[in-house]
Amino acid sequence: MSALFQRESKTPAIGVDLGSGFVKMAQFKEEKGSLRLVNFGILKVPEGAILEGRIEKPKEITEILKELISFHSFIGNRVVANVSGQLVTVKEIVMEDLPDNELYEAIKWEIERFLPFPLEKAVFDYQVLNEIVAQNGTKKLNVLVAAAPLDVIQLTSELLSIANLKPVALEVEPFSVLRLLRFTPGFGREENVLISAINIGHNYTSINMVDKMIVRFSRILPIGGKKITEAIAGNLGKSFEEAEETKIKQLNLGIENQVTKACLTLLNNLALEIKRSISYYFNKFNEGKSMNTVVLLEGGSANIKGIEGFIEDSVGYPTEVNRLFTSIATYDPTLFTKEYLHEMAPIFSVATGLALREYKPKVSPRKGKAATQEEQVKTFLTYKKG
Ligand SMILES: Nc1ncnc2c1ncn2[C@@H]1O[C@H](COP(=O)(O)OP(=O)(O)OP(=O)(O)O)[C@@H](O)[C@H]1O
Ligand SMILES: [Mg+2]
Asked: How far is the CA of 302 from the centre of ligand 2 (A)?
């Protein structure tokens, strides 16, 4: 029998999700041909310590990383971390069919036009998604580009090293989101189902359109759990801390009460942006035709009670919370309770995707297209030192 997973590394990588609200770590190991959860941990980030994917308070974040590592028995110190924020750009572009060395140069010129910062201050990488043949027979290439500010990449990498961690790779969030989906048999593999994966975090919401297992469109909104807490605080005259507690304990979007009312405008805006992004996708990528679509919510704010029903009603597509964290691996029930894992699942989806980077899911029996797509999304933004 062939092995389910191929491991390329010495010790399994620890996924480190450097969120602006919480740092999350998760690790899995291969055991008897399947994955087993080694451990996972979460610590709060002081307000303003990570902004726009930039670590503004390196000392505090180093301490958090050290604390997480020393409190949870992870294996080794190899890590895969993420870079996020609005300065991270993920975009699909159409290029001439050029030889590799010329394509690299041509992409450089192309991305300079839309990067929000100078090219010499960026790290970028690309993957050719597929070839397009125009009616006149000329070939073009669909290319997915990811770029992030060089200083963000360097600082993150240095900081991980200071915390005695070995960064194996840094990658952009949409790809960790995607990887977790690829590990879930059956999920999203159906042809023509568009997955709109929405990560509602603390400061940001990222919207990722996954079509046939390719992230084809990504955008980041400056809306998240922090704004929801602020809305509760502002409208109900509470401190931020009180409002945060109220949000966790009392907010239920299935019930009409004062707390729900306090954040309704914000959540309606969020739903509207999700709806707009889906329509934009149909127009731009599917000749204006609608597709079967599933909205998949993740991130800490996906734990807001009743959010699935609220988004489903407002956006008009079936919506569920991404709790795949609990279904991709086995775990020791004496260490983790089912209920706790269920609650933590949406919060840990990115850390899980990062941790899975060096494992390969069993490729589906469908030949050709599926296998190529698996390959296409394999690697993305890797920081090569020096
Ligand atoms: N049970 C819950 N109910 C409501 N909100 C919750 C719950 N649990 C966590 N949150 C909220 O989720 C947010 C944190 O989520 P997450 O850890 O995904 O954010 P992050 O990755 O740190 O932030 P970002 O991705 O925006 O940088 C916080 O605003 C927190 O209040
Ligand atoms: Mg996040």
From this structure: 11
